[in-house]
Amino acid sequence: MGPEDCEAESLESFFPTDEDIDKWMSSAFDMAREALENGEVPVGCLMVYKDEVVGKGRNEVNETKNATRHAEMVAVDQVLDWCRCSGLDVRSVCERTVLYVTVEPCIMCAAALRLINLPVVVYGCRNERFGGCGSVLDVSSAHLPQTGTTFKCVSGHRAEEAVEMLKTFYKQENPNGHLNSHLFFFLSFSLLPFPSVTFCLFLFFT
Amino acid sequence: MEPQMKRWKGSVYDADSWVAYPVLSDEQSQDVELIEAFAAPIVNKKETSRLVRELNSLYPLNGFQHIKRVRACKEKGSPHPLEVLVCLISDVPDMKEVSIDSLLPSDGVKPDGLGEPFVVKVPARPPLTRPQFELASQHWPTSFHEDKLVTVALRGELFTPTQKATMHMYMMSALTAAKAGKELGMEAVGAVVVDPEMERIVAVGHDCRGDHPLHHAVMVCIDLVARSQGSGCFCFDSYPACRFTPLTANTSQNVSDSDAGSRPYICTGYDLYVTREPCVMCAMALVHSRIGRVFYGTASLDGALGTKYKIHSQKDLNHRFEVYKGVLSKPCEDLNISDDHDKKDSGQ
């Protein structure tokens, strides 16, 4: 079928430009900073389709008591709602949507992004404890024919800054106070060049 | 053991018709890896204890404490009754001509009582399970600190008939939910979350991905558990077979003291029964939710609790849990088969 071939070809070349990356990652970092200022996990995440933000999210684990409510999962739900409101087909939108997130998606989120056929993820720092794009498992490119499609990653964009925000968030928390999931969530991230960060944080957690 | 030997008679819906086997980590289930070493016959038995002592200090088997130094000679009628492990081949990497004299420096071990060395294969890692121990011992005597529970579990005999009857009942609920989901055009997968302490079903869910690509049965159940505690973020009211039991004062009395409502990981201590092996997303969601144990009926192609990954035993992750497969395997497999047929029929 002709139109499908065309579609496949254009998907091959579908990739954000450096300009796109700078612009949208800057928004993601603004979101993360805003979260930090409000005492929330400083992770920013947005989904962009045709130069329009169609989903954004922050971690909602505590208020929903649902440990799967990571920022990416919240953003995916917004994309689905957006498609419904716009009367557009979910798959054809997702296939041309890019996720910009300040921290590498976890294993669960990486699998979820495959399941919705997202083609590209741009992220800041690595997620040493849970990362699903290579840090713990490489779900993004693994051979999993029943689990949607693989996606490409652009990593390391302003990584130090992402880690710095997480560190700041941690310092605001009282280590002797309640060890809630926010804190835990935070402890799960680090940047490879600073292994000592992970280590120190891990000590506090345990 | 008699009960397990029984062939299942009559109905498939019989707790004797299935066996739950543990899904062990790679380390516990992998083949026995072997490395090469030099052994030598002890031609004078009286020298044995001296040889062992001196070899232990010359070539200590660091990191290989599971390997026994001496073995009784395998072949009957052998001129020497014992053989001793001299060293690993990696201990003497640059040796060109191997003889007992070249292996034993003159100031170290007196070669009295030893014959000429020969190459043997010894297990590289301590055996973790009885099957690994039995394989390892075929090569060289190996010590084994047996975890009796693992041995019993690998024989499929971990659960008592009473426990199996309870597990059977929970998986039947998951099967019923799976069929209800299928009626609505979803994939035929059902799941049940159970509080094993209270012997109480907390949530029942089925696949809803026809309406939301991420609403697999396990994800539905995790949110229903959150709803059972007054939170959650989805409404599954349009699926009558997806339901939860609200956590009341009565049911929460066993939950430790004050903080039942503020526990951040709400599946702590709960068991999940699911008709087929969870995918990567669902398996990791169970890690995040701190599930207690998972029981599934049948494996799935991209499964992450045994088939493609063993996320429940992944060393780097912060939560690990036990997984058992094979609970009501036959009816759970049949769900998948009918699902596949439907897919083919609709040209997918």
From TrEMBL, chain A:
This is tRNA-specific adenosine deaminase 2. One of its GO terms (cellular component) is cytoplasm. PROSITE patterns: CYT_DCMP_DEAMINASES_1, CYT_DCMP_DEAMINASES_2. Probably participates in deamination of adenosine-34 to inosine in many tRNAs. Keywords: Hydrolase, Membrane, Metal-binding, Transmembrane, Transmembrane helix, tRNA processing, Zinc. Pfam families: dCMP_cyt_deam_1. It comes from Amphiprion percula. One of its GO terms (biological process) is tRNA wobble adenosine to inosine editing. Residues 19-144 form the CMP/dCMP-type deaminase domain. Belongs to the cytidine and deoxycytidylate deaminase family. ADAT2 subfamily. It catalyses: adenosine(34) in tRNA + H2O + H(+) = inosine(34) in tRNA + NH4(+). InterPro entries: APOBEC/CMP_deaminase_Zn-bd, CMP_dCMP_dom, Cytidine_deaminase-like. Its cofactor is Zn(2+). Its EC number is 3.5.4.33.
From TrEMBL, chain B:
Residues 165-324 form the CMP/dCMP-type deaminase domain. GO terms for biological process: tRNA processing. The keyword Cell wall biogenesis/degradation does not apply. GO terms for molecular function: tRNA-specific adenosine-34 deaminase activity. InterPro entries: CMP_dCMP_dom, Cytidine_deaminase-like. PROSITE patterns: CYT_DCMP_DEAMINASES_2. One of its GO terms (cellular component) is nucleus. Pfam families: dCMP_cyt_deam_1. It comes from the Eukaryota. Gene3D superfamilies: Cytidine Deaminase, domain 2. Keywords: tRNA processing. Its cofactor is Zn(2+). Belongs to the cytidine and deoxycytidylate deaminase family. ADAT3 subfamily. This is Adenosine deaminase tRNA specific 3. The lineage of its organism: Eukaryota, Metazoa, Chordata, Craniata, Vertebrata.
